[in-house]
């Protein structure tokens, strides 16, 4: 069945620029031109947090893999790290000299990559909040930068009409994809890590294989594409366009599956939840919408739905047979039956424990830096208290 509207969040006072789900789907982070970052609860009737700190439009937001931190980038040239539940406290990263358009955590949560109108891509350590290095071969604004799932590569998209692939270790540009006819608004890695999808002002979505550096699929729309997100199964892609629609592309079939209407005015951002059950979208209409995916309900993800009559195909054409970038490897439920369950459970609980430790490290790092800021304040207070106590004791002895 069609994707259905699950939640509708109103609270931003200007265009929404960015959306991202936390790992457990309990929270949704959004950024807006109104200079605020908001964290919405997926539970009905739960209040939203509005985080104030950026001095200008918030261009991008992302939860850390553990979900215990949120990074944001802004037109005020800074990157901030927030704890998504406390008093909205944050620490600031400064190194860019212009608008920061994109923030992205590596999958281990240790590094952050940012992209900016200063034409650079920068990499930071999360825990020490230290700037590591810049990648600077773009000759115009950089709109978006992402780590590959294994963290070895970085991909970046720019108004110089190129998508560049970088090796994180050598810090060199391995390849430039120059097939876009306009600015490249957004780029991301396929979950397999073997290909990338890019969206542009030339109304196209292009999918490239990063091993052979060749174009695999090309979808021609009729409106500027602002954002895209791969479904975790790797079989689908959702896009947000200036014609106010979200489109779901079937990558195995190489065609348009659904067109989702909801926004009034350009749809600016879209993202799947980390398990793919939902996707969220934001628009210049200040609205944030959460949609239930529905198309994976039938089985394990190898759904091939008939094209809905009446929904436009926008002249989509894909190279379905060539989509060999790890997409066809379907996970079956029986894959692990050979391994004994105890071992599996042990591994799962170990992974969970590690995840938990990482999460706590995240919070500790943040807390320490906030505590440092407060320490001087506390010392002053303490001095005051001691002086008062002295007076009280003196008064009693008198």
UniProtKB/TrEMBL annotation:
Signal peptide: none annotated. The keyword Coiled coil applies. GO terms for biological process: cilium assembly; microtubule-based process; multicellular organismal-level homeostasis. Residues 301-326 are annotated as: Disordered. Residues 354-388 form a coiled coil. WD repeats lie at residues 9-50, 51-82, 93-134, 135-176, 177-218, 225-259, 260-292. Keywords: Coiled coil, Repeat, WD repeat. May play an important role in centriole assembly and/or stability and ciliogenesis. This is POC1 centriolar protein homolog A. It comes from Climacteris rufus (rufous treecreeper). Belongs to the WD repeat POC1 family. InterPro entries: WD40/YVTN_repeat-like_dom_sf (IPR015943), WD40_PAC1 (IPR020472), WD40_repeat_CS (IPR019775), WD40_repeat_dom_sf (IPR036322), WD40_rpt (IPR001680), WDR55/POC1 (IPR050505). SUPFAM superfamilies: WD40 repeat-like. GO terms for cellular component: centriole; ciliary basal body.
């Amino acid at each position: 069945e069609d994707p259905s509207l699950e939640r509708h969040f109103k609270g931003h006072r200007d265009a929404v620029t960015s959306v991202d789900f936390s790992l457990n789907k309990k929270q949704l982070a959004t950024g807006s031109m109104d200079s605020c970052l908001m964290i919405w609860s997926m539970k009905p009737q739960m209040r939203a947090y509005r985080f104030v700190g950026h001095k200008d439009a918030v261009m991008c937001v992302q939860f850390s893999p553990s979900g215990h931190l949120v990074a944001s980038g802004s037109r005020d040239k800074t990157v901030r790290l927030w704890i998504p539940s406390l008093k909205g406290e944050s620490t600031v990263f400064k190194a860019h000299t212009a608008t920061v358009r994109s923030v992205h955590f590596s999958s281990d949560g240790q590094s952050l990559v940012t992209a900016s109108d200063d034409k650079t891509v920068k990499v930071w350590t999360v825990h020490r909040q230290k700037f590591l290095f810049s990648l600077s071969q773009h000759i115009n604004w950089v709109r978006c930068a992402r780590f590959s799932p294994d963290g070895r590569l970085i991909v970046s998209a720019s108004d110089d009409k190129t998508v560049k692939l970088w090796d994180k270790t050598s810090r060199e540009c391995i390849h430039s994809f120059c097939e876009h006819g306009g600015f490249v608004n957004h780029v991301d890695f396929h979950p397999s890590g073997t290909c990338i999808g890019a969206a542009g002002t030339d109304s196209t979505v292009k999918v490239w294989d990063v091993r052979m550096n060749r174009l695999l699929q090309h979808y021609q729309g009729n409106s500027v594409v602002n954002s895209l997100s791969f479904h975790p199964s790797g079989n689908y892609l959702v896009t947000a366009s200036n014609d106010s629609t979200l489109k779901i592309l079937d990558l195995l079939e190489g065609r348009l599956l659904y067109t989702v209407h909801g926004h009034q005015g350009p749809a600016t951002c879209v993202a799947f939840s980390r398990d793919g059950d939902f996707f969220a979208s934001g628009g210049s209409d200040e609205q944030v919408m959460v949609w239930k995916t529905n198309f994976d309900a039938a089985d394990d993800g190898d759904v091939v739905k008939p094209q809905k009559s009446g929904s436009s195909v926008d002249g989509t054409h894909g190279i379905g047979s060539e989509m060999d970038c790890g997409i066809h490897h379907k996970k079956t439920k029986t894959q692990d039956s050979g391994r004994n369950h105890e071992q599996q459970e042990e591994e799962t609980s170990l992974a969970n424990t590690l995840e938990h430790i990482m999460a706590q490290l995240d919070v500790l790092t943040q807390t320490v830096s906030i505590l440092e800021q407060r320490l001087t304040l506390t010392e002053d207070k303490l001095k005051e208290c001691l002086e008062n106590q002295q007076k009280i004791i003196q008064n009693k002895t008198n």
